[in-house]
Amino acid sequence: MQKNIVKKGLVFGIILFIMLNMLPNTDAQIKNLFSKSLINGNIKNWNKQDINQINVTYESGNYTLYGEIYYPKDISKLYPAIIFCEGNGGYINAYNWIPKALAREDYVSMIFDFPGQGKSEGLNPIRGISFPVLNIYLRFGHFLYARIHYKSGDFFKATTDSLDYLLEKSPVNQIINKSRIGLIGHSLGGVIVSEVASKDKRIDVVIALSHGEPSIIANITVPIQFQLGSFDMTSSIPTILSCYQKANSPKEIISIACSTHIGFTTVFSSLCPCPTWQKPICLTYAIGWFDYFLKSKPGSYETITRGTNHLSKIIPSRYNFGDEDHILKYE
Question: Does the structural domain 2-327 have CATH classification 1.10.357.10?
Answer without folding.
Answer: no
